[in-house]
Amino acid sequence: MIDDFANLYELLLAVITAVAALYAWIKDKQAKNDAAYADEVQKYFDPADTTVQAPPEGTPKRSYTMSDEVKSFLISGESEEDQRSMLEQVRDAEAKDLCEYRVSYSRGYYNISYGQIAGGAKYA
């Protein structure tokens, strides 16, 4: 009977050790995946690094798309036709997950970077 308990105890310790090792392996793999994901996100938002051209899965769109306030500023004072065209260009660029693009209209253009107006020109 004592041998049965000793064997059961050893088996229980072996199972606990195996579960602990499996848990440690999973956490280590998850940490490596998290670090790789963070590296991809940093590369995506670094304008000088062109190795990651699409946002990594799970990146919130609000971090690189144009807010309603910026869209309102972009089209203010422009003709209805230009407003429609400009908003369509923004929609098309954001549908392609572009961070850097140009919005052209009849009187000039705007350079857009990560949802913000980064520059532009108006024609005389």
Structural features, described:
Keywords: Membrane, Transmembrane, Transmembrane helix. This protein has 124 residues and is α+β, with helices and mostly antiparallel strands. 55% of the residues lie in helices and 15% in strands. It has three helices and three strands, in the order αααβββ. Strands 1-2-3 form a three-stranded antiparallel beta sheet. A hairpin with a 2-residue loop joins strand 2 and strand 3. The radius of gyration is 27 Å and the shape is rod-shaped. It starts with a helix and ends with a strand. The model has no long low-confidence stretch (mean pLDDT 86).
Kindly list the characteristics that best describe this protein.
124 residues, transmembrane, three-stranded antiparallel beta sheet, alpha+beta, single chain, transmembrane helix, membrane, 3 strands, 3 helices
Instruction: Tell me the total number of β-strands.
Output: 3
Proportion of beta-strand residues? 15-25%
Name the structural class. alpha+beta
Report the radius of gyration as a whole number of Å: 27 Å
Note the main sheet: 3 strands, antiparallel
Q: For the terminal residues, how far apart are their CA atoms?
A: 99 Å
Helix amount, in percent? 40-55%
Count of separate DSSP helical elements:
3
What is the 3D shape?
rod-shaped
Uncertain segments of ≥5 residues (pLDDT<50)? none
Strand order of the largest sheet: 1-2-3
N-to-C SSE series?
HHHEEE
Mean pLDDT: 86
